[in-house]
Amino acid sequence: MWETRLMLSLSGNQYSNCVGVSRRNFLQLGAPLLGLGLADLFQARATAAETVRPKSNKSLIVFWTHGGMSQQDTYDMKPHAPAEYRGMYRPVSTSVPDIHVTERFPLQAKVMHHISQVRSVHHENGIHAPSAHWMQTGYFGPTLARNAPQKPSFGSVIARTIGAHSEHMPPYVTIPKSEAFGYQGAVYLGKSYNPFEVGTDPNSKNFKIPNLALPDGLTLKSVESRRELLKQFDTLNREVDQSGVIEGLDTFKQQALEMVTGERVRKAFDLNSEDNRLRDQYGRHQYGQSALLARRLVEAGSSCVTINTGYWDHHNDIEKGLETHLPPLDQAMATLIEDLEARGMLDDVMIFCAGEFGRTPMINGHAGRDHWSNCFTVMFAGGGIKGGRVVGASEKFGGAVVERKTTPLDLLATIYQKMGISLETHFDDASGRPTSIVGTGKPVHELF
């Protein structure tokens, strides 16, 4: 039997049971044997009792525009500026008088009464990695010489403070994968609060989750029989291990099994169960199917889902680049808002669209726009955010803040407060020093 071969192939170093496998060995190897590296993901459950978590039913869906969206070509248009500043698109009216957006956002224009913009975001770095860290964590940290993450991402903070709303669901998910710089992770909060990566494009043919697939040669029936094998570990004297590892083991193994075999998780990831008409409405592209999957995940109990939308770094021929991004983003975002509203979920699910910075006011000699962190725009909707508002303002060419300068920490303070997370929350950093999740940040109360 497979179980017999397994028992012969492992050697327990200490405190082995009758089959020669110690609990410590199983903790280290058990999840991979089930086809998953889920032990870290579920370690949070074992320590959850130590954390006083807010009673929150809020969730967050993020559209992360890696590379930097051009504010002048999307939300903060400058139609009266010279051609080299205003760009190639015309503004269109929206459902809110006096708010205009790019003509490439016709669907968002119709739901602008649900959307608010902060047009005065500012930080002081124009390099991708440090800026991505600043926007994902609220803090400046890495440099080109030292680009390792220094602080936990807001997704990991949400996972740590709120957790999943339903048992067995991962609290924090990235679609299709986490961004390349590695700043969407937990750092000193612990690997338990890193995101669960979907691993593949939800719009791909025969979409399935690699991290939920059983390894070759295993069936659900064999995994179910393996439950009996796992029970044998329960006979080990828990007092022989003083490290505290054993205490949480039962929780880890059960949740790993439930995530592999359980119906709730599998159903949440099953896009084929959705009506084809709704899938078409979201759009048969990565943006659309990712947004639909995000809605299904928060509906099933995840508290933060980040959609990494691809590369927006348009130094050359920005119109060509934006044409690949703006229409699908518009379709996905507007449909998500309408879908959440129709399901009565919009008040409980916040949508946040941002990148590491914006783009230069003037179009360069290659028909592109370069990096610009002095003033750029982010978007909010749902989750208790008041829609149809514009906060802050830029000067006539969009290059500097002239009203209501807003920092990355202010944005995160806004998200945390609306999600019910105390702004007084501190966590010990790698050196053991208590570190605030918001520092000097203050919520953007104009959105409340």
TrEMBL record:
Pfam families found in the cross-reference section: DUF1501
Which InterPro entries does this chain map to? Alkaline_phosphatase_core_sf (IPR017850), DUF1501 (IPR010869)
* Protein name, UniProt field: DUF1501 domain-containing protein
Organism this protein belongs to: Gimesia benthica
